[in-house]
Amino acid sequence: MESTDQSPPPPPPSSSSSATPPSKYYHPSPSRPIYSDRFIPCRSSSNFALFNISPPPPPPPSSATRGEDNSSSSAAYTALLRTALFGSDLGFVAPPGTPDKKSSPVTTSPVSRNIFRFKSETRQSLHSLSPFVFDDYSPGVSQSPVKAPRKVSRSPYKVLDAPALQDDFYLNLVDWSAHDVLAVGLGNCVYLWNACSSKVTKLCDLGVDDSVCSVGWAQRGTSLAVGTSKGKVQIWDASRCKRVRTMEGHRLRVGALAWNSSMLSSGSRDKSILQRDPRAQEDFVSKLSGHKSEVCGLKWSYDNRELASGGNDNRLFVWNQHSTQPVLKYCEHTAAVKAIAWSPHIHGLLASGGGTADRCIRFWNTTTNSHLSCMDTGSQVCNLVWSKNVNELVSTHGYSQNQIIVWRYPTMSKIATLTGHTYRVLYLAISPDGQTIVTGAGDETLRFWNVFPSPKSQNTESEIGASSFGRTHIR
Fold first, then answer.
1. Which of 69, 280, 310, 369 has its CA 20 to 30 A from that of 355?
2. Distance in angstroms (rounded) separating the CA atoms of residues 166 and 66
3. pLDDT in tens, 414-428
4. Model pTM above 0.70
């Protein structure tokens, strides 16, 4: 191994004639480079214009010499390249070279003491760093490459016939469980469709004098709540197809249900919201009053601290866990508010949609109690749901276009518009993996769409279910 130690420096030479010559002690290696102990930076190519410092004057022109033509061409090319790289308003920049110490003193303008202050001129576009000229470049127009939009299939990968699926804006008859089981209320019955095996199971039959108005899965487990037209709420254990209990308290139909970790909220046409604890003996533990018409939308926030409710009175209310009166009231919608969705990405971000006379999706910050933005969709907003994997959301619509729109938030640019339902798209649920949505309409069909990317591959189009295309019956 070669040693990194260096030879000791030679002793200073003596003034006497008998002094030993230096070569006896020091033998420089011919292969070892000799470095200078000083470094003089070359500042002739520095951009003095950025700091309000005048550059040194150009050297005086010399007489004609051999190779004058080559020098002119080189200077012209240098000037052209300098203009392409740094712009034409940078002033003169001397060619690289060692400054001449014997040159005449340079006359400079007074230098600002605040040399490194921010200047907007220092921010140059990507085109100013290119040696090529862009004729179509115009100020204010970004020329950076635009990311290609994600492709979303315009066709459903599966269609299920759902006979007797009601065309009623105020009901909520479809929900998708964490165990990948879809619950659908058809007439007076509830059916379960297993997304893994495509097996259909009839869970319950309420009889000829009652009908299903809402279904809602618990966040965990296999408990399913069923709201009826008689104002009752039934709790079913779907794994055993057994009814656990029946809870009363409402005088009219129960069209909205929402679970948090341990509580169940039910909204009714009697204008009230009941908070229920299935573990308690009482049918409900508290009653929330505030709406002046039927409650048709209910959603708990992801942290289970806030409950949002929408009603046919065009009102959107926010409640906390202990309030019996709304803590926040939003009255900007001009039609019934059924579509409600909490963002899983931003705490306190709430989206709501209005009915036929409103057609708007509005965004709220419940932490600061502020209205963020509004988007007119052109159609009745029936449902909203956020993607769990990306900052996007999907809305379903009724009069008059019956479309499904995938939006990118917060720009609210449309990623895809899906059509196929011939009636209002009144029902919407999202799969537990966050990639697939199912929509239901009064045309008595359930349609499955791949709209969101997977959490592992957000830039590739999901292919889940693509091989199982077909149309079957849910019962």
1. 369
2. 95
3. 999 999 999 999 999
4. no
